[in-house]
């Protein structure tokens, strides 16, 4: 079974103007990724690592600078005509971080759910709307259809966002920090919803988050990104319990953990490197306590013990 | 605040609608000797053709309002169309349109209108509307473009794209409804600008001065050296109307924020 | 040392009163790390503003006392309160790092308060600023920088240094690290821990990130619908939560070290604080609720070395 989504050598650069010069921000510097059927892969990293850019390129909101994207084994051309684009949008959907900002405040819920059906010429609207609201556990469905976004709570809004995403029966959902703006008591509800959608609807998720614990809970695999590159990839529970790359170890140490015995001596005052002029070698070298001379040269992503790591230590 | 503005506008609309009934005399009929001072028969005296000035003020509201509002609508239409296109599509189209906007912004409006009007042979209300609208849409377009730029990156617009909405639908059905108060505000300030613009062009004799608007009244008053000859009322009456109507639209334009942004509502 | 006694505060609008802080009492001892945990809309920010006399209209304090070394801060005149603020008690908020004056160098902003309100000479002020900046790990050469030249994490350190200028006894922090990345957050929090031991102050830390508080705080208060529903030693509250809401929160939090199969969310939504509440405010979402919970509001009772507001005990 070929992977549902495959990314090869993806690069994305943004031009920015500083005075009279034009500089480029290299947000993605060569990313290879696979998403299989019935799988949740979480992409973790801090701000600026490129995870959101990755998602937006895959959603065709940005055009890639270089690299290939394969959907169900077929390469996607740079330009799609309207018919091809609609086919793509039916299969690949996206969910955003801010449940209030991703719903048009001037439209009713029924409108927002009907639009995808109208665009893709799907019939039987009434029944589908009811079904989809039940799928996201918003019952009774009728009471939600005529409401405006501001009349719902944050958790309810996010469920509507998911409802809109699954209404065309997609195979892939790109989820950009879907729980980071939700209260603690609501977060796991949405995480559980994602697990349910994976199991019952066969949807694969590419889930971007900075919350390592949430990633561990719902993912099959975790991908760790730093400064536009993947630095580690592997089984979710395995990566969190036994991190290999020094940056993954740092993330693990830094995450809040009520069960931690005593505070560890983590004194890291470093920052990610500039993406305008990224270092040629390992991006983490300046902050790494294990850094050696060879880290200044480019380091490849290697397979070690069923894990992929970009580090000279392995 | 806006209630005062609305009240004034309704007053003038009423005046314009019922002008034939409100005015004592037809505005164009010579009824008496010219340049008569105010009297019981002619509250504001007579003009150079012996016509009743008061009736002219009342009838003048018609064309002044029509020209003002039509120009305002046309200006807003152009500004919104160009501003949204430039803001949404970006790239080369944006750069071309922005340069166009900048050109029209940099050239002073009224002198430009004067120059163009003096070259055009045809004169009339339609010309006035076109001249004002086609030279002054720049600032509205800039504002709309900025707003679209910021709305474009809001997540609900990205969500619409991902759902598969076409660009046209996104512009008109997703972004525009979120800009209604801005468009309304631009409309009101455009009408204000148009009223002043029409008055200025007419005052300089660059419109069809045989038509009766408050602006053309000022032209004729100036022609007769009204202020030097003690006929200050001939200038004051239409002038006051222009100021009142203009201010009322200004009040609406400012208060639009008050109505839509709850944080600015008076305590 | 610092004590809040039966504080009631809220926001007065034309036709309704939002009762955001309902009869809250707590004590902060020397070098305590007192955590206030709660979700959005529970009233924790109002609690902080009310305790510091910073509530502006339409907010107001209805009743209660805020005692600092015996003096009730709420009964002081504004001018006296200004003297105490920054000297004995200070504040770090989430938006602080974005509220720095963009056109002043940071050394000038920090020295400003000292020179204007507390009679320092410019040189003495700069010396103190240098000292405190060193404490938070900012080198003296950075004193000449403008806020936009510093990263988010560094700006927040500057704000913390400002809070430490006059060596206050109690520092309030409202979501000080929420806007920062997890690694930066961790290093700042570690720095705060060290400073607390060195400079001997107490912290009242308000946040919705409960796992953080369970890890770092000595004492913790769980706030719901304007009240403290559980209050006690952080580690024991975590290992043996008594109140159903606390239990629900812990069960809803994915853990990074444990390998649980399922996490549950708490059904329902938080209460509207403008409404009068009959009985227990949590009863609609509580799986243990029984008849008494509908009628009678549970008071805070001392159970097993902890305070809990629940009829189960």
List key phrases describing it.
heterotrimer; A: alpha/beta; 8-stranded mixed sheet; 4-stranded antiparallel sheet; 31% helix; globular; C: 313 residues
Describe the overall structure:
- The complex is a heterotrimer of chains A (314), B (267) and C (313).
- Chain A is α/β, with parallel strands linked by helices and 314 residues long.
- Chain A has helices at residues 51-58, 82-91, 109-119, 125-135, 142-145, 154-166, 184-201, 212-218, 236-241, 246-254; strands at 5-18, 21-35, 40-44, 66-71, 74-75, 92-95, 172-176, 204-209, 221-226, 229-235, 302-304, 307-309.
- Helix content of chain A is 31%, strand content 24%.
- In chain A, strand 11 and strand 12 (307-309) form a beta hairpin.
- The relative contact order of chain B is 0.16.
- In chain B, 72% of the residues lie in helices and 0% in strands.
- Chain C has helices at residues 44-51, 78-84, 106-118, 122-135, 152-164, 182-199, 210-216, 234-239, 244-252, 291-295, and strands spanning 2-12, 17-28, 33-37, 59-68, 71-72, 89-93, 170-174, 202-207, 219-224, 227-233, 301-303, 306-308.
- In chain C, the strands form 2 sheets. Chain C has an 8-stranded mixed beta sheet, with helices on both faces. In chain C, strands 2-1-4-5 form a 4-stranded antiparallel beta sheet.
- The longest helix of chain C is centred in the middle third of the chain and has 18 residues, at 182-199.
- The mean pLDDT of chain C is 87.
- Classes of the chains: A alpha/beta (314), B mainly alpha (267), C alpha/beta (313).
- Chains in contact: A-B, A-C.
- Chain A binds chain C through residues 46-47, 153-155, 183-189, 191-192, 210-214, 216-217, 237, 240-241, 250-260, 263, 266-269, 271, and chain C through 39-40, 137, 151, 153, 181-183, 185-187, 190, 193, 208-212, 214-216, 238, 248-249, 252-260, 262-266, 269-270.
């Amino acid at each position: 079974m070929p992977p549902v989504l495959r990314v090869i050598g993806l690069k994305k650069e943004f031009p920015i103007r500083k005075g009279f010069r034009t500089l480029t921000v290299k947000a993605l510097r060569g990313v290879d990724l696979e998403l299989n059927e019935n799988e949740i892969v979480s992409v973790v990293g801090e701000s600026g690592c490129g995870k959101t850019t990755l998602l937006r390129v895959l959603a065709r909101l940005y055009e890639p600078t270089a690299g290939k994207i394969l959907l169900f084994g077929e390469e996607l051309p740079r330009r799609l005509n309207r018919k091809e684009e609609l086919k793509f949008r039916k299969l690949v959907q996206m969910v955003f971080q801010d449940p209030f900002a991703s719903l048009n405040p001037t439209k009713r819920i029924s409108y927002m759910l009907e639009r995808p059906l109208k665009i893709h010429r799907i019939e039987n609207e009434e029944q589908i709307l009811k079904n989809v609201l039940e799928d996201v556990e918003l019952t009774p469905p009728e009471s939600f259809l005529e409401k405006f976004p501001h009349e719902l709570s944050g958790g309810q809004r996010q469920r509507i966002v998911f409802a809109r995403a699954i209404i065309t029966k997609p195979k892939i959902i790109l989820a950009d920090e879907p729980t980071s703006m939700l209260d603690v008591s609501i977060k796991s509800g949405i995480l559980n919803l994602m697990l349910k959608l994976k199991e019952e609807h066969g949807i694969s998720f590419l889930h971007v988050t900075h919350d390592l614990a949430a990633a561990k809970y719902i993912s099959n695999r975790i991908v760790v990104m730093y400064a536009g590159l993947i630095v580690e990839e592997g089984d979710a529970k395995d990566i969190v319990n036994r991190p290999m790359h020094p940056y993954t170890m740092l993330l693990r140490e830094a995450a809040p953990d009520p069960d931690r015995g005593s505070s560890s001596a983590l004194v890291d005052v470093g920052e990610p490197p500039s993406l305008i002029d990224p270092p040629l070698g390992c991006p983490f070298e300046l902050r790494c306590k294990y850094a050696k001379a060879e880290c200044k040269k480019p380091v490849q992503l290697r397979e070690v013990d069923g894990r992929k790591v970009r580090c000279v230590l392995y | 605040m806006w209630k005062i503005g609305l009240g004034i506008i309704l007053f003038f609309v009423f005046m314009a609608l019922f002008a034939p009934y409100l005015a004592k005399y037809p505005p164009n009929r010579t009824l008496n000797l010219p340049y008569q001072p105010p009297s019981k028969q002619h509250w504001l005296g007579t003009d150079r053709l012996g016509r009743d000035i008061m009736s002219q003020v009342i009838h003048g509201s018609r064309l002044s309002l029509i020209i003002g509002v039509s120009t305002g609508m046309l200006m807003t239409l152009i500004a919104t169309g160009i501003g949204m296109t430039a803001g949404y599509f970006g790239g080369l189209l944006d750069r071309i349109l922005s340069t166009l906007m900048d050109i029209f912004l940099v050239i002073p409006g009224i002198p430009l209108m004067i120059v163009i009007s003096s070259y055009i042979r045809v004169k009339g209300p339609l010309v006035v509307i076109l001249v004002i609208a086609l030279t002054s849409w720049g600032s509205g377009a800039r504002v709309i473009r900025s707003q679209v730029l910021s709305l474009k990156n809001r997540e609900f617009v990205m969500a619409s794209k991902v759902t598969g909405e076409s660009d046209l639908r996104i512009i008109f059905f997703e972004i525009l409804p979120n800009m209604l108060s801005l468009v309304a505000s631009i409309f009101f300030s455009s009408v204000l600008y148009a009223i002043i613009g029409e008055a200025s062009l007419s005052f300089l004799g660059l419109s069809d001065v045989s038509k009766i608007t408050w602006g053309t009244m000022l032209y004729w008053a100036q022609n007769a050296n009204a202020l030097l000859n003690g006929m200050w009322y001939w200038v004051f009456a239409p002038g006051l109307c222009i100021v009142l109507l203009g201010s009322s639209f200004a009040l609406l334009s400012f208060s639009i924020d008050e109505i839509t942004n709850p944080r600015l509502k008076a305590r | 040392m610092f004590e809040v006694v039966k504080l009631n505060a809220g926001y007065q609008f034309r036709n309704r009163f939002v009762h955001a802080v309902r009869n809250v009492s707590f004590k902060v001892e020397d070098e305590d790390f007192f955590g206030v945990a709660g979700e959005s809309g529970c009233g924790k920010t109002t609690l902080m503003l009310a305790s510091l006399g910073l509530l502006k209209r339409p907010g107001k304090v209805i009743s209660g006392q805020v005692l600092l070394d015996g003096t009730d801060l709420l009964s002081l005149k504004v001018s006296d309160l200004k003297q105490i603020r920054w000297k004995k008690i200070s504040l770090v908020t989430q938006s602080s790092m974005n509220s720095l004056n963009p056109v002043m160098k940071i050394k000038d902003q920090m020295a400003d308060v000292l020179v204007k309100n507390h009679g320092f000479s410019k040189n003495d002020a700069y010396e103190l600023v240098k000292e405190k900046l060193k404490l938070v790990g900012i080198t003296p050469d950075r004193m000449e920088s403008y806020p936009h030249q510093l990263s988010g994490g560094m700006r927040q350190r500057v704000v913390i240094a400002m809070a430490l200028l006059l060596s206050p006894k109690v520092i309030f922090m409202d979501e000080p690290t929420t806007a920062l990345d997890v690694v930066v957050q961790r290093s700042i929090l570690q720095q705060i821990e060290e400073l607390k031991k060195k400079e001997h102050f107490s912290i009242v830390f308000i946040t919705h990130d409960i796992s953080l508080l369970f890890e770092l705080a000595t004492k913790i208060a769980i706030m719901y619908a304007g009240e403290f529903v559980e209050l006690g030693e952080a580690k024991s509250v975590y290992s043996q939560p008594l109140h159903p809401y606390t239990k629900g929160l812990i069960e809803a939090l994915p853990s990074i070290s444990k390998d649980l199969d399922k996490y549950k969310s708490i059904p329902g939504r938080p209460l509207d604080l403008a409404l009068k509440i009959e009985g227990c405010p949590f009863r609609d979402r509580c799986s243990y609720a029984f008849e008494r919970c509908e009628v009678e509001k549970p008071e805070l009772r001392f159970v097993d070395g902890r305070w809990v507001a629940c009829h189960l005990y």
